[in-house]
Amino acid sequence: MTTMYAALLRGINVGGSRKLPMADLRTLMEELGHARVRTYLQSGQAVFGADRGDEESLAAELARAIEERFGFAVDAIVRDHAYLRAVAEACPFPVAELEPRQLHVTYFSGPVTAERFAHIDPAAHLPEEFRLGDRVLYLYAPDGLGRSRLADALSRPRRTDTVIGTSRNWNTVTKLVELTEPA
């Protein structure tokens, strides 16, 4: 049975470096044997159907293929439709009352705990807020991500980190749910 997935690539086509044309990404994914391959925007989202593998093995296969073909390493996170829908439905912020630019989701490659963010004083960043979910972090940034001091604090890498994350705005979050809807 074919399962629909979204591949989230971190740090491509940003600032003129690590260029990865979406047409080339689609071709590569089709060569890997995936069906119904589509890309969304230029910032590293692809949806596809696969009847083999799991999220971790599909992400590793894609990252390896990108490095072999394009010559640079890319972090990839793959999540299935059910997970993407659950993330959207579990949003702890009032989605209907917010502008999409105010809400972001960071998808992580593995589980994260509150301990990872213990160094951040939530009160110091109000009215910005964040909440953790299942391998995700929800960020409410009323002035947008570009002006968010909390987003900056949340994204600082920790030396002991082995979990990677990549963020998407709410429009992309909901579009990926739509695009991975089973046929």
TrEMBL record:
Pfam assignment, any one: DUF1697
Top-rank lineage group of the source organism: Bacteria
Name this protein carries in UniProt: DUF1697 domain-containing protein
UniProt source species: Streptomyces actuosus
Lineage summary: Bacteria, Bacillati, Actinomycetota, Actinomycetes, Kitasatosporales
